[in-house]
Amino acid sequence: MTSARLSPTANLLRKSRVFALPQALKPPQEPPTSKTVFESDSATLPYPTRASIVTPGSSSKSGDWGLKRPIPPKSTSEKSIRPVIRVNAHDTFEHVTDFESAQDHTVTLAKFQELHLPMSLPSKVNYSSSFLPGHQSPFELDVDNTQTSKDLARPYAKQFRQSGPWLAGQTEAEFQTYLKKVRRDKPEILQRLRDMYVAKRAVEQRKAIQDKGEDLENMQPIEFDEKEFHAYIKSLRADPTALGPVIFELLDLPSPPPVPNMRIAGKYFHAPGTKLSATEYATSGPPRTHPSAGLSYTRSHALLYNHPEHGPQAYQRPVQARILRPKSKLKGKGNRAIAGIGGIASEDVNSITFWDQRTPPGLAYFDASIEGGGKYWATPIRASVTSDGRIDLASLKASVTAKAPYGIEDAPEADAANRVAEVTKGASRQVPKLDARAPRFRQFDERRHTPMTSREDAARSLMETLKYES
Prior knowledge:
Number of domains: 4
Shape: extended
Number of helices: 12
Radius of gyration: 32 Å
Region (Disordered): 22-79
Strand order of the largest sheet: 7-6-5-8-9
Helix content: 25-40%
Strand content: 5-15%
GO molecular function, one term: structural constituent of ribosome
InterPro entries: Rbsml_bS1m-like
Distance between the termini: 104 Å
Pfam family, one: Mit_ribos_Mrp51
Number of strands: 9
Protein name: Mitochondrial ribosomal protein MRP51
Largest sheet: 5 strands, antiparallel
Structural class: alpha+beta
């Protein structure tokens, strides 16, 4: 059988890269705050919003990227060995193609894949204790479901996406728009409510027959009564405890956040147990994408790291983490240090990370004498994607057993003091002031600190020092 012939125009559109590009995603929104927010137009976004485009080396030299017009090689192939671009606009007012480099996200993806970490469902990691949450793959049949999946009929099945919106994350305008849609679909909703009422009556009749010890074959078909149905609706309106689960089941809404303690004593619409695949989604909302976000498709971390000389290892090769922000004296999340691992900013540098060894240089305070910033060796243990599309990476400081096969050693503890001593050498003999709360150092005076050769010189020097201090 021969395939149907396409017209030249249809064949051109079918093979065109312009029509193959997906629609751009919305950029992430920052939470509303009254504080001053400093943003950068060139900062890397938490997730890519446009597709990355690559082309063979032979085509990139001539500027052929399969787009409307050629891309200048001076901005692509001559700047990078493997150029990757993203197109912001195919044709602007100036009749040019607006593009930029997409190396930020493609290199981050390559670095993350070198960690050999499976994606897990979000779970809070408590670093103040030795308990770490277990790995749960988002590809399991009981959690990898949407509102149209067939596996929802399985017992205890969960889903990461539902047909209804997450009401807690909507604005007032979005909520009013959704209410108009619900009012417009009122006939279909009432019909689903009638079906739910008939199923409820059937369950009650079945339970009554079982309690009496009678045969289930004596069950009679349920006859729908409009008066009883309206009485059932009135009873739901009078009881928020019973109306809440019915509304969430009828409209297929994700579970809301937990009720605050101040509202527990009052009346509120109760929500049923969450159907979301992870409990963290009940607080932050369902994920915008699949819980894996396409970063990794391995289901478990059951990998064997085989060293060419020492054989199988229990830990993979440690990776170097760069300290982006040291710890602070603030309370709460503001005191946590931030480290970059594989291009991903992680806040998993906490007390349990360094409970058995000394703190790495540059972690407790900013040390300007460290060339390139403070670093330490870390072992990633868990990776997940939050509901807003950010990568949540958990790591621990690499142990001695994990570093020994690769000959990795941390900097000696005396290096920090030696670096400070080298910086302070010079004519001024003054330690640079890095923190306003640090004690001030008076300038060294060579005349007041002459070498002591006798007891009289020592006594004279002591008297001059006391006089200077007073």
